[in-house]
Amino acid sequence: MLKRVHFPPGILPYLLVAPQVAITLVFFIWPAAQAIYQSFLLEDAFGLSTEFVWFENFVALAEDPIYLGSFGRTIVFSAAVAALSMSFALVLAGFADRVARAATTYRTLLIWPYAVAPVLAGALWVFMFNPTLGILPYFLEFMGIEWNHYLNGNQAMLLVIMAAAWKQVAYNFLFYLAAMQAIPRSVIEAAAIDGAGPFRRFADIIFPLISPTTFFLLVINVTYAFFDTFGIIHAITQGGPANATTILVYKVFNDGFVGLDLGGSAAQSVVLMILVIGLTVVQFRYIEKRVQY
Amino acid sequence: MASITLENLTKSYGDTEVLHHVHGQIEDGEFIVVVGPSGCGKSTLLRMIAGLETITGGQVHIGDRVVNDLEPAQRDIAMVFQNYALYPHMTVRENMAYGLKIRKFSKAEIEARVREAAEILEIGDYLDRKPRQLSGGQRQRVAMGRAIVRHPKVFLFDEPLSNLDAKLRVQMRLEIRKLQKRLGVTSIYVTHDQVEAMTLGDRLMVLNKGYVEQFGSPIELYSRPASVFVAGFIGSPAMNFLPAHAEGGRLTLENGAVIASTTAASGPVTLGIRPEHLVADSQGPIRLAVDVLEQLGANTLVHGVLAGTRTDLTASLEGVRDIPGGQELAFSAPPEALHVFDRATGQRVGD
User: Fold this and answer.
1) How many CA atoms does the CB half-sphere of A17 hold within 13 Å?
2) So what CATH class is A65-287?
């Protein structure tokens, strides 16, 4: 067994962890506690009168069709972002894994989108798809598609999904590539000798062997789509048109800071908090154990 | 079943040629061992035959086909890898069946072949286990099972025993040999272990720095090594090499001792004598100054130097001996046990 005490017991260990504890308390625990407290309050827009209403805010949420609609949209959005970015990353990684020459260059280039700030990524896509100035609507018109995400809710949703997925491809790509490169070459060669072509090898050998990574990325991507896509949506659609792209995290901001329904917004963020705790539990319980094969 | 012909085979990485003009004719059903030190190109040669490495120059024939441009799957070969390369997410049964499944064999045929292979290799009890639940020796058997279910024309073995412990290695070596004899499939086996090579192969191809030094039966290599490299590589304990001067069939050693021989060589040569061929003879010309002994039970290895020089010399004496260090022993060697090599080129000369 390791010797447990290397330092004399005393105040030093506490001092060493104090900065981290302080940061956690000030920036995480305190705001979270505030949000929970606030979610039980009903407050007027000017903050002049406050009433403690227990779970009334949550009941109101559960009965609010706009909120429930936003829940549904969030699920569609997250599923689409995760599916799109992961499958695209998987294909890219599959090819990058086969390249012998200039592999480092591809890898570096493919990582770049991850370094782009969400708002900038959003701005990029807004410009590309701007109905009057954008290059892509210009081409889409030739194909008979009229693009205007300012008016068409489905197109707006499609655009934020693409932008959010694009940004996450780099991250997924890195993990997939690392997982593929961890597979012993000889296993792939054995499959080649057994008669499996490149696609068969990918489907029968590579994909099952990287399933732990797929599961890990699924949780990470859903978490990302749920909580980290505020910047992209804010830059591209501001939740519109007609709430078509208002996902839960955007609605928290919108109701709280634009609508000034602080209690309702706090209740929404508590719901989100419970979701993220749930996802984290899933991640720790199952991913740490890895997928068995 | 097929013969294999290697014709002027070369392999280069960029400007670096790692295999140089390898020739070889391998008969149907023969067991060939490719042996050489690390980095001699033996695995590269095997992988070229398998189709896992491109061929820079020359041709590989399997049967009557040139297979240079065929995918590994089309060459009708099976390979056993050093790390077994089992599919970790499949059971033993699925591992063995995979190649047959891809080739669209019927379920019944697959089951029959897997059963047959499992019986031969005595792994019938593990068919539903995953590779990680098996020991090293069992994984080795599964890897061989995966090779034999396909009934390929050629088996390729890439150092298949080097991850096993010494005892298991000896046992598996014998089993591979028996299996190959029983199935009669042409096999190429790569190893760096000369004992493995000697015991397994019908013929040995000795590779050194990408050149074929010699290609022949184990006994041929032992009794008539073509070069200093082969002479030193084959046989244990290793052959003694003594600088000598040849003239008129007489070999003069560094310390002035003269050995009678039948060699036709003349000039500076390297004289090779195996430790087991030195015969204790008080009148003998070869004098050994004893340094240390190695007791092996059945015989004793006497290590020392050629008297009056600093050239290492080892003799093998029968039984248990007790010889104090510093003592001089005299030996003679029969002319047929003398191997004479050109000093400069290392090639066998003079007979």
Assistant:
1) 6
2) mainly alpha
Amino acid at A268: Q
What is the nearest CA distance from B67 to chain A, expressed in angstroms?
14
Whether the per-residue pLDDT at A24 is higher than 90: the answer is: yes
Q: Which of B183, B205, B229 is the last residue of a domain?
A: B229
pLDDT per residue over B30-69, tens digit each?
999 999 988 888 999 999 999 999 899 899 999 888 999 8
- Does A261 have pLDDT greater than 80? no
Q: Which of B229, B261, B287 is the last residue of a domain?
A: B229
Helix A262-282 to helix A211-227 angle, to the nearest 10 degrees? 170
Q: Which residues contact A37 (CB under 8 A, 6 or more apart)?
A: A266
Q: Which residues of B touch A197 (CB under 8 A)?
A: 73
The verdict on whether omega for the bond into residue B334 sits within 30 degrees of 0, i.e. cis, is: no
Orientation of helix A135-142 relative to helix A118-129, angle to 10°: 40
Q: What do you get for the CA distance between the two ends of chain A, in Å?
A: 32
ipTM of the complex: 0.81
B42 touches B35 (CB < 8 A): yes
B146 touches chain A (CB under 8 A): yes
Q: DSSP per residue over B4-60, as a string?
A: EEEEEEEEEETTEEEEEEEEEEE-TT-EEEEE-STTSSHHHHHHHHHTSS---EEEE
Residue A3: what pLDDT?
56
| Closest to A176 in 3D by CA, of A128, A140, A216, A138 | A216
Residue type, B57: G
- What residues have CB less than 8 Å from B298, skipping those under 6 apart? B318, B319
Residues B287 and B191 in one domain: no
Nearest by CB: A194 against B82, B89, B98: B98
pLDDT digits (tens, 9 = 90+) for B209-252: 999 999 999 999 999 999 999 999 888 889 999 999 998 888 99
Q: Does B81 touch chain A (CB under 8 A)?
A: yes
